[in-house]
Design a protein that fits this description.
The protein has 145 residues and is an alpha+beta fold.
Length: 145
């Protein structure tokens, strides 16, 4: 259709005539409500940004004491596995209370025990070496991609 006819139809309907592909021969235009089009485009971009944010992995923290019972440890390991399955990174912290600081090797064995329990079914990567920060021994783990 000619450009004059398209402009006339757009004016009658009270909408805009928008050029879609100007390099084409003949140029391609569309009769749309420009304000509505911009609004929908803005909403779609916001939705895409939200999805991108959701896909980023979070850093979850799981604190474990040295005197934890086996059942409680199994519950924490199950929770860590669910975090890893969701794509999150998990920081495992061994908490030392009182005189437990004198036995740092017990904290290292507890950390090794937790990591082996987690990696039974999942393939995980331990990020860096275990580090002491105050009264905590911590290490980050994530799932292999």
């Amino acid at each position: 259709m000619s450009s004059r006819e398209a402009q006339k139809i757009a004016k009658e309907q009270g909408v805009d005539l928008v050029e879609i592909a100007g390099n084409a021969d003949p140029p391609v235009v569309k009769i749309i409500d420009w304000g509505k089009y911009q609004y929908q485009k803005m909403k779609e971009e916001a939705k895409n940004r939200k999805k991108a944010r959701e896909k980023q992995s979070e850093l979850k923290t799981m604190k474990v004491g040295l005197k934890i019972s086996d059942n409680d440890l199994q519950i924490k390991v199950r929770k860590i596995r669910s975090f890893l399955e969701d794509g999150d990174r998990v920081k495992i912290m061994i908490i030392f209370r009182g005189r437990e600081m004198a036995h740092k090797e017990l904290g290292q064995t507890m950390l090794d025990k937790v990591v082996t329990l987690i990696s039974e079914n999942n393939e995980i990567i331990v990020e860096g070496k275990p580090q002491f920060a105050g009264r905590n021994l911590s290490v980050s783990v994530r799932r292999k991609t």
